[in-house]
Amino acid sequence: MSDGQTVLVTGGSGYIAGWTIIALLKQGYAVRTTIRSLDKADVVRANIAKQTDPGNRLAFFAADLLSDAGWDEATVGCDYVLHIASPVAAAEPKDANELIRPAREGALRALAAAAKAGVKRVVMTSSVAATSPAAKDLSEADTDETIWTDLSVKGVSAYSQSKTLAERAAWDFMAKSGGGMTLATVNPAMVLGPVLSGDYSPSVQVVERLMTGRVPGVPRLGFSMVDVRDVADLHIRAMTAPEAAGQRFIAAGRFMWMADMADFLRAKLGSKATKVPARRLPDILVRLVALFDADLRSVTPGLGRRRGFSSAKAQTMLGWRPRPAEETLIDCAESLVAEGVA
Ligand code: NAP
Question: Distance between CA 271 and CA 213 in Å, rounded?
Answer without folding.
Answer: 13
